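Usage

Read records sequentially. Each one opens with the input sequence:
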Amino acid sequence: MYARQMLETHPRKPVADADVLVACIEACHACAQSCTACADACLGEQEIGMLIRCIRLNQDCEDICAITGAMLSRQTEPDWHLMRRQLEACAMSCRICGDECGRHGDRHAHCRICAEACRACEEACNRMITAVPA
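and closes with the structure output:
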């Protein structure tokens, strides 16, 4: 990924720890991609009716993660109060989506993988919350 390179070339230095910031940006984008792919794979399954909630949560989580990753990538004049709330929402979405995908992980490998991505993103967001200025 290019997150670190972009941060290093930005005229303003990150206010938060760069390693934590880069890890969170990358986790958000990876989770968004996993959620998109999982929702699509769920749509291809035979028993789609049992996966409707999973699909919906995948779509919601994908949107929240993509926006969070984009917001974290912007280093010019961030509003850290807003960023903290966005990170909290992202962590919550990842927890809820990860739990739902985890329920289907034994039957569907794509759900197992997505649950892993959601858990990694939740952890990254929680680390980032502690790194942002108060």
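Summary fields computed downstream for this record:
- The helical segments are 3-9, 18-44, 52-73, 80-104, 109-131.
- The CA atoms of residues 9 and 132 lie 20 Å apart.
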